[in-house]
Structures are given as C-alpha cells and as structure tokens.
Amino acid sequence: MDCSFVIPFFNERESLEILYHEIAGECARLDLRIEFVFVDDGSTDGGREVIDRLAAADERISLVRFRRNFGKSAALSAGFREAAGDVVFTMDADLQDNPCEIGNFLSALEQGHDCVTGWKQVRNDPLDKTLPSKLFNGAVNKAFGLSINDHNCGFKAYRRELLGELEMYGELHRFVPALLHARGYRVGQIAVEHRARRFGKSKFGTKRLIKGALDLMTVWLTTRYAARPLHLFGGGGLALSALGFAILGYLSVLWVLGLGPIGDRPLLMLGMLLVLFGGQMISVGLVAEVILRRTIGERDKYSIAERLGSIQRRELQHEVERQIAR
C-alpha cells in the first residue's frame, strides 16, 4: 500500500528529524511504500534546512514552503495537493503523535471508514487546554449529530479520493470530521497514545476559543443551508412576520372595540418593525436562491459515490444482446 504523510510544521526544528526516523522505521516494519510531504508554514528557526538535509539522503521527502505563516488549514491543503498515496496521513510535528498507531489506522480504514481520526483518550496537556477542547468537541457533536471525542486531533488517515472534496481555509482543519460527515463520508475514530511534549510550547491560545465558535457557526450554516438558503432566512422571516402580524392584529381589535388609541403605543412600532424585518429576511432568502440557481447546478451539490455512464450502460446492453444471440 502507498501512504503519504503530510506534516505541517512551524518553528519545530528539534522534532523534525526524530519524527521522520520514527515514521520511516514503523512503515518499514509494516512493509509500506511511503512518501513524506513536509509543509513549512513560515518557520524562522531553520526547520527548512533540516528537511533539505533529510531530502538529500531520501528521495521520498518533499517540502512545500510558505513565505510566511498562513495557518494549519492552508498548510494541510497544500500538502494534500502534493500527496499521491492511496492513504494520506496527517500528523503534527511536535512528537505528541506516536507513529506506532499507523497500523491501527490502516486497520480501521479496511473496516470501511473513509476517514479515521485519532482520539487522545489520555491527554498529556494542562487543564486550560483540555477543558476548552472538551467544550469544543461537545458543541461540534451536538451541532452535527456526531460522536467523535477529539475533532481537533492532528493524527488522521484519509482515503486519497475524498481529499478532492475537502476544502479547508481559515481554521477549518478542526472541523474535518464534521465536513466529511456532511458530505456523506464514513468517519471513524480510534484511541491513540498522546505523548508528552518534548520541545517547544503549545501554540494554543484563548483567541482560538473565539475563532472556534465563529468557525463552528460558519461550518454549521454552510453545510446545512448552503444548498437551501431560503430555509434559513425564510424560516426566521416567517416567524418574525407572524409575530408582528399577531401584535398588529391585537392592536386592531383594540382600536375596533374602542378600547383606547393605539397610535402612541410602542407595541405598534414593534409590530411594524417585526413585519418589515421578517419580510426583508424572506427577500434575502429568495435572492440567495436565485443566485444559487444561477451559479451552481443541481448535480454539484452532492457527493456521488458511483456513477454508471450511458456509454457503459450501452456496452453492457450490447454484451447482453450478443450473449442472447449466441
């Protein structure tokens, strides 16, 4: 089996050569044909020189180098474009992922999964990193109906054919299981060993909590409503308009019964605003539907697992006719 290892790194010079030898040794034991795709995400500590030295002695190594730090999603996307193996692994370069798990990932893929993500069941990280991670995983599972314990684990294995449909930008690498699940792929997980950090420090910060919440909203909206925007805007617009009409109807009854003036009531202004805002939301949804129909065909909205073309069908029909004639 041909396997590609996509390894983004950012200022992790000390761990690169160690990780390379660990992966190479484990894959030799498993008798796998492999390639390494290292992605230098704008490192300034000389990590590129380490990879250049390793590549001079091992033709299986290739390097993608960014001019500056663009983030992990961009690095993974660049690595995926270069990877050519039947199975593509992603690993962090901090040595916390143990290459001894490679065989377990391959076994999980053979059981029918399209993507397998690692689950750091026992984490060697401080509480200020593990607690936000649990909250994040719980929110993503709730939003997408998944039961993945560790969405953000960098140790994953993919079947090569699905990478063409995996579009990542910003911080969307943390939502890979959810994105693939939304496209109809089978996503699984296995428990993996999580080793203590040997070099450097974690790049996790409090800003990622805010970014994660915003990205969760982005992924949820785009995966659920990208093909039916009117359901999103129209549903909210109808609810607001219905509430507004109910308020205006109530005030109209009061006016007809002569129970007092309604022109100076704040409730009148609220009812009118709700009706107008609800109508605007419905209009936005309709415009979005028109734009969608003009820019994307119905066939582009779905992930096709298998297609039998008309030429193949005709060939099969002719073959059946020849068999009958005999």
Give a structural overview.
This protein is α/β, with parallel strands linked by helices and 326 residues long. The chain has two domains: 224 residues, Spore Coat Polysaccharide Biosynthesis Protein SpsA, Chain A (Alpha-Beta Complex); 73 residues. Strands 3-2-1-4-6-5-7 form a seven-stranded mixed beta sheet, sandwiched between helices. Helix 5 packs parallel to helix 7. The mean pLDDT is 83.
Strand content of the residues, in percent? 5-15%
Enumerate how many helices there are, as a single number.
10
Distance between the termini: 42 Å
Average of per-residue pLDDT values: 83
Order of strands across the main sheet: 3-2-1-4-6-5-7
List segments where confidence is low: pLDDT < 50 over at least 5 consecutive residues.
none
Largest sheet: 7 strands, mixed
Integer count of domains: 2
- SSE arrangement, N to C: EHEHEHEHEHEHEHHHH
| CATH architecture label of the largest domain | Alpha-Beta Complex
What helical percentage do the residues reach? 40-55%
How many E strands?
A: 7
Fold-level CATH name of the largest domain: Spore Coat Polysaccharide Biosynthesis Protein SpsA, Chain A
**CA-atom Rg in angstroms:** 27 Å
User: What is the CATH top level name of the largest domain?
Assistant: Alpha Beta
Transmembrane segments: 232-257, 269-292
Keywords: Cell membrane, Glycosyltransferase, Lipopolysaccharide biosynthesis, Membrane, Transferase, Transmembrane, Transmembrane helix
Protein name: Glycosyl transferase family 2
GO molecular function: undecaprenyl-phosphate 4-deoxy-4-formamido-L-arabinose transferase activity
